[in-house]
Amino acid sequence: MDTPDQGSYNYLNKYLTEIRGQGRYSFTLEELKSKFNLAYPAIKQGLFRLKAKKSIAQVRHGFYVIIPPEYSNQGMLPLYMFLDDLMVYLDKDYYLALLSAAALHGAGHQQPMEYFAITQSPAPRSIKNKKLKVIFSAKSKWSREGIIQKKTNAGYVNVSSPELTALDLFDHAHEFGINRITSVLMELAQEMKIRALTRIAKQYSNTAAIQRLGFIFEKVLSEEKLAEPLLKILKGRNCFTVPLSSLKEKKGEIDSKWKIIVNMEIEIDL
Fold this sequence. Notes:
The protein is of the alpha+beta class. The chain has 11 helices and 12 strands. The chain has a 4-stranded mixed β-sheet. A hairpin with a 2-residue loop joins strand 8 and strand 9. The longest helix has 14 residues, at 207-220.
């Protein structure tokens, strides 16, 4: 183990340079303790100085990211550059999801100010501070179907495929609203594949999300080829009539094909 001169904190700077040379942007407190055989109080002042210089930022207790000069104004890295390391640290399977995933697939002209990730249940506590906002949601029935890897400057990050992203958006429709989701879906549909959608939807547990997605595909976006496999899947399930928007009254014309109460007018924001 390396034992630094405790009167100098150059050892931390040197180690951060070493980490960056490996293509990494993050490190943990436990890593430092092990590397230098020091207790936290001995390392704390060095970390404090680096934070004051905005050379590093603390994301979670015991987990830090290195801030290169090009990100000094923001004081934080884009999440996808360290999310994989963070989730290894938290010991959670995960994927970047919802509007964050849609943006990576080129859908959603308004970039959200927060990030969204889905993890195995229970979800970690969300991160909400001036520099970073990450909303973690849990999924109890975990499947790797539809989770792909995208290359980043720091390795790879797990991301939902366009098909899984679409289904998850309707699973979280109460958070984003049908109009916003439909606007995103209009662009996301261009990246979707029928076979992949069929495979993922077969394993998707939220039947109402499939109903709403199929209805929007056919009735609003005229994407009949993407709607067709969803209808076949629904015919093999017990479907209940659900409102298009769960945030509005359950009043309106019923679409018997998709068992959807059309309780709102769609307004696409593009």
